[in-house]
Specification:
This protein is of the alpha+beta class and about 130 residues long. It contains five helices and five strands, in the order H-H-E-E-E-E-E-H-H-H. It folds into two domains: about 5-80, RNA-binding S4 domain (Structural Genomics Hypothetical 15.5 Kd Protein In mrcA-pckA Intergenic Region, Chain A, Roll), CATH 3.10.290.10; about 85-125, no CATH class. Helix 1 (about 5-10) crosses helix 2 (about 15-25). It is globular.
Length: about 130
């Protein structure tokens, strides 16, 4: 099964095209390697997903045939992310330090990239 299809089926993304774009943008890794949307996954693979400046880690248990209900997600993957609530809050505070004057409008492309590149790893290094 393709990685973009798998992520859509286990409800990590709202649509397969969003999952595919996440792969293309480098937000998805399998066994610590960046992958294309067409990469085939097998049980026991470790999948890393970057969402909201946090890397979530999942181990694949089995492959669903189609999109499953939220209650059944635990049958197909185990989340192995080891981030505490304090770490999540500190990441949110870090990204909220980006200040824009009221009425200035949307951020420019450069400013959006800077906001997206703020990561928890850089916060720990400081």
């Amino acid at each position: 099964m393709r990685i973009d299809q798998y992520l859509y089926n286990i409800r990590q993304f709202k649509s397969r095209s969003i999952a595919s774009n996440a792969c293309k943008n480098g937000h998805i890794q399998i066994n610590d390697k960046l992958v294309k949307p067409s990469k085939e996954v097998v049980p026991t693979d470790l999948v890393k997903i970057r969402k909201n400046q946090i890397w979530k880690i999942f181990e694949i248990l089995s492959l669903p045939k189609n999109r499953i209900s939220a209650k059944l997600v635990g049958l197909y993957c185990i989340e192995k992310t080891e981030i505490s609530i304090l770490e999540i809050e500190s990441t949110r505070k870090l990204s909220s330090n980006v200040f824009r004057e009221q009425g200035k409008g949307r951020p420019t492309k450069k400013e959006r990239r800077e906001i997206d590149n703020i990561s928890f790893d850089s916060y720990l290094k400081d």
